[in-house]
Amino acid sequence: MSDPPIVAGAESRTRSRTPILAALMCTMGLAAMDTTIVSTAIPQIVGDLGGFRLFSWVFSIYLLAQTVTIPIYGKLSDLFGRKPVLTAGTTIFLAGSVACSCAWDMTSLIACRGLQGIGAGAIMATVATLAGDLYPVRERAAIQGWLSSVWGIAAIAGPLLGGALAEYVSWRWIFLINLPIGALSMTLIGIFLHESFERRQPRIDYAGSILVLVAVGLLIFGLLQGGQAWPWMSRPSVIVFALAALCLVVLARVERHAAEPVIPGWLWRRRVLAGSNLATAGLGIAMMSPDAYLPTFSQSVQGLGAIAAGFVLASMSLGWPTASTLSGRLYMRIGFRDTALGGALVIALASVTFTQIPEPQPVWAVVLNQVLLGAGFGLLSTPLLVGVQSVVGWGQRGVVTSANMFSRYLGQSLGVAVFGAIFNATIAGRLADAPLSLAGQLPAHVDDVIGVLHAGQAGPKADAYLRATISLATQHLFVGMAGVAVLMVLVLMTVPRRFSSEGPFTESASGDEHSGA
């Protein structure tokens, strides 16, 4: 079977790709915006619904539901085509958006956010796969640059739009605004995307799908709750991770005998795929250091407002899509592996450079550092995604793309746990070793540090000590990120320098797939 055209006819394909790309960007924008737009509406939502102690799950359930469903949607897109999976996922996402706007308490909002996350899983798994279907290897880097720019726009526009809607209209509109964007995307997809592939009787791996949901769900749940709801070495933590490990063992046995496994064994037996996915997981871990803690550093140490702090973080989104777009020329010249290696080294350089910025750190220096860090992320992520897509045919592209996306989101969950532990341990150590002259002026618990500092409840010397504490904790995060970058370099060194489509996992590949990059 040859790699089928995604749009019938060569001329039709050329003309139709632009509106389809616009639709993909709109659809990606839905998932990207809903990771940021809720953050600035927290006071209004809690004031209306109550349940502040549960509010963190408004974010966590979205991430969990999205991550656990990505591998399943990837497999379904290989069996039934990208268009029905993307259409169904977008419909579920929009239904979840409407349900969120009608939430009557915090529990119902969390449940509806979970429904949104289930739809977002289909979007994340399918959009990148369609980009691989529509464009040859030489052009995919530029397309990934366009898709990456959506996240940059969402990082800036999401909090601003969410805050404006919550303050001047109603927080419920931060979910209803998804409807016209989703309707436009589905209309463009319905009109311009016409798939043509050899249909066969699908044999759905129900047992594997359920085990993926349970095993990965337990793993991410444990990572999100550990150190927050319970200590890492407590009985609940041990039970959750033990159950996750047991389910993963059973999953491996079930998938070995499944006719159409959700997570095929060849994903982990081939160095080119396993190494790329491990490096992508490292990318996910590294991303969480600035994403989660740089705004706190900007506000608490540099004295910026919430909006200005958001712009500092968003500066990373300037380097990412730019480097992603330019990486195409680089990987066509030196290969996917070496381009990704360059990205990991740039991440290490940016991480170390941040720790060397003299105090008090000027805003412009932090912004430039984030642009460099974003460039490293772009040089790493795009070659790995395009590279794994290039070694398989159409019938397996959904699986390898979703495995790559899943690795990144699983890495993000792990990054939340790792960097949270580093940040809290640094602050706890500084509070314990505080000078006797500050006795009684500092908060007793780590959780109270930000609140005490922003409220101005401590004296000038105590405030200065707390700012220095947060600055040191942030520097430790970037040291940890440099360590993750070094591990990514070591992992990538085990990956073949030239990606090859040869191997038992490839049913077919045609034309540009044999790039040898």
Structural description of this entry:
This protein has 517 residues and is mostly helical. The chain has two domains: 1-199, Growth Hormone, Chain: A (Up-down Bundle), CATH 1.20.1250; 263-496, MFS general substrate transporter like domains (Growth Hormone, Chain: A, Up-down Bundle). The chain contains 19 helices and no strands. It has helices at residues 10-33, 42-49, 56-80, 82-101, 106-134, 137-168, 173-176, 178-192, 206-225, 235-257, 266-269, 271-300, 306-314, 316-334, 336-355, 363-389, 394-432, 449-455, 460-492. The chain is globular. The two termini are 23 Å apart. Residues 1-14 and 502-515 have low confidence and may be disordered.
Mean pLDDT over the residues: 82
Total number of helices: 19
Please identify the structural class as seen in this structure. Answer: mainly alpha
The count of domains is 2
For CATH, the homologous superfamily of the largest domain is named as MFS general substrate transporter like domains
CATH class of the largest domain: Mainly Alpha
What is CATH's topology name of the largest domain? Growth Hormone, Chain: A
Radius of gyration: 23 Å
Measured distance between first and last alpha carbons:
23 Å
Number of strands: 0
